[in-house]
């Protein structure tokens, strides 16, 4: 059996002052956050970072926020992708009709070179913004790489968003070029987006060029076709523009559920270093591996999945709906070695009695990644039973903010169901008390106490960093506060309890919502649960649980009692909700996270803004919570 890359890295780390090879992983983690310079020197050496000009240091020595990474260095993300000749397939595009398209490494470089030349002729230059309104297809990867190769700044949205939602993100960037698709596949239908493309062009007056992917032209448009911009242009080897380490690579967007989406800026060198570390060391990814994580351009996993190219792996895309068999089909067709899905997808597979390893050829699969929400112990057990010991299950936690992860699976470290195996190297993450003390086996605030390379260089249109500091550093000056409740166990594993901005504070006792919901959701009649807490007049506190139920199930007194009993037994009597209410739906972000804060605001009578409504998968469901709050207030129980 091949030695995991992490074990090989441990020997490199030892040569830089790290613990002796064979030491417990906890010792390696402790060294990685104690001696940042030595650790990241070892990472960049082991992962073979590509520099046009080597940096003079790992950091400039400043504390957060404002620490600069790899000062003096010059590089380009795309230079690292094509740093050495590679044979075989670079990108595979699947769609729900069963069509598969492949792009070789040679073809990928030629297409990127050709599109970069077209963008240059259209006037795109270093620092300009190019935006993509695209489904998860190979063209989106080519568009990003071509943009980045010029030192221009990329931002993307999936065509599952309507034009208005994309505009709330794109217009703040004043982009000079739009690369857009005419439509996408969804549940056996072709969703035409030509009108949305036209609306984007009308709403972005800064545009100097538009490139349309697809057979349907924009009516009355002077837009270029993808074929004229790429296929009909000369390709071949090219030299990406060398940029400073901290030069903007892309802008990702916050969910927009608590205000207009914020543009989060990441750097070339910071992203390359962090993604190489994550994928090489913790997903054990190598050249020739087959990497598919279901995502859209709206989610940071699209950006992280691109990191497979940095490792020489083949990256797989999917244009279609993630129906209960669709992603397992892609895993079989693509002989996927590294598969990423959401806990909700795994739950849906379990609920229809799917048997993945028996019904699909998954013999190539080595790693199953899972993120977006909490992977419950029950679902983890099901996955392990179905896939067997040869597949490592890596439940991870991280965020768009750092376009990476904080904790997840670690080769050689056991993963207990319901827990995340360990904090990743270089991530100085702790559960803190209100007194700024690190807690063990107790719930605390997720904080990062040392800088990471992929932390944002700032927010877009935030020249004095006021909004950036307020988002992460205002509550605990000099410390990154992520907004989650977690427990770091005595074994070094991590349990995520839910968002701290949706904290339940009943009778002075703070509680996370995830534990309460899991107790209810493990009942066969309950599909999903959401718990919120609201302060009410006269010092009261109302903590309702909203549930959606399996087909044909009604919320009667018996089921209500079962839910209460499950919470009492699994969590504690103080966690039992005041009311259990049948809801028509639980709202989520596009990535599947439950939205406690917008529900709390709706119950308080606060309306959704247009920007917020575009960030919720079912904005119509918010009417139910508004009406529930109205009835509560009519009884004189308003907060």
UniProtKB/TrEMBL annotation:
InterPro entries: Acac_CoA_synth, ACAS_N, AMP-bd_C, AMP-bd_C_sf, AMP-binding_CS, AMP-dep_synth/lig_dom, ANL_N_sf. Residues 25-78 form the Acetyl-coenzyme A synthetase N-terminal domain. Keywords: ATP-binding, Ligase, Nucleotide-binding. It holds the Pfam family AMP-binding. Residues 522-593 form the AMP-binding enzyme C-terminal domain. Belongs to the ATP-dependent AMP-binding enzyme family. NCBIfam families: ac_ac_CoA_syn, PRK03584.1. This is Acetoacetate--CoA ligase. The lineage of its organism: Bacteria, Bacillati, Actinomycetota, Actinomycetes, Mycobacteriales.
